[in-house]
């Protein structure tokens, strides 16, 4: 009788362990699906008409005759919104909320292209902000830089 009870106890423990493993796996799958859904929402924004216009406007900066600070304020704001999108996306990647590989697969080349176009503007804004009394402004757009170059942000701690 004791062998039978031991067998039942071992079987119950293994069954409980299996249930725990399955539950943890289901939780991980659910978490990944929620990340993927969030990323797809970001990609909807990225592919929207308004965002497409921002990208086209930013691409005009590749023309040496067009200077960012000579553009009207509303056009400057549109370009800055583009850089904020990439900075926010970089923050999510930095905090491992969205895998970098997925981002690179979808828009990696665009990230590099826009970093090349916008980094001089970002650097100038960093220099202008570094004289302010709040030091966190001196690393303006550092998550965008991380996304494009892999340089770790200094003004954010991982969540």
3D structure, described in words:
- The protein is mainly alpha-helical and 159 residues long.
- It folds into two domains: 1-34; 47-149, no CATH class.
- 73% of the residues lie in helices and 0% in strands.
- It contains five helices and no strands.
- The chain has helices spanning 2-46, 49-59, 73-94, 100-129, 142-149.
- Helix 2 (49-59) crosses helix 3 (73-94) and helix 3 (73-94) crosses helix 5.
- The longest helix has 45 residues, at 2-46.
- It is elongated, with a radius of gyration of 24 Å.
- It starts with a helix and ends in a 10-residue tail after the last helix.
- The model has no long low-confidence stretch (mean pLDDT 85).
Straight-line N-to-C gap: 54 Å
Helix-strand sequence: HHHHH
Strand content: under 5%
Count of discrete domains: 2
Determine the mean pLDDT. Answer: 85
Instruction: Enumerate the spans where pLDDT stays under 50 for 5 or more consecutive residues.
Output: none
Radius of gyration, Cα only, in angstroms? 24 Å
The percent of residues in helical segments reads over 70%
Helical/strand content category: mainly alpha
User: Can you summarize the main beta sheet?
Assistant: none
Helix count, per DSSP?
Answer: 5
Oligomer: single chain
According to DSSP, the number of beta strands is 0
Apparent shape: elongated
Short précis:
This protein has helices at residues 2-46, 49-59, 73-94, 100-129, 142-149. The chain is mainly alpha-helical. The chain folds into 2 domains: 1-34; 47-149, no CATH class.
């Amino acid at each position: 009788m004791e062998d039978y009870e031991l067998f039942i106890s071992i079987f119950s423990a293994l069954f409980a362990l299996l249930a725990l493993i399955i539950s943890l796996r289901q939780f991980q799958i659910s978490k990944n699906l929620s990340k993927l859904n969030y990323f797809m929402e970001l990609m909807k924004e990225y592919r929207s008409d308004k965002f497409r216009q921002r990208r086209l406007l930013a691409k005009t900066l590749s023309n040496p005759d067009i200077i960012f600070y000579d553009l009207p304020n509303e056009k400057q704001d549109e370009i800055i919104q583009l850089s904020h999108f990439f900075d926010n996306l970089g923050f999510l990647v930095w905090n491992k909320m969205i895998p970098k590989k997925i981002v690179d697969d979808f828009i990696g080349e665009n990230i590099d292209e826009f970093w090349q176009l916008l980094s001089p503007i970002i650097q100038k804004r960093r220099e202008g902000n570094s004289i302010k009394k709040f030091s966190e402004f001196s690393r303006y757009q550092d998550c965008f830089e991380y996304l494009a170059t892999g340089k770790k942000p200094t003004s954010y701690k991982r969540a």
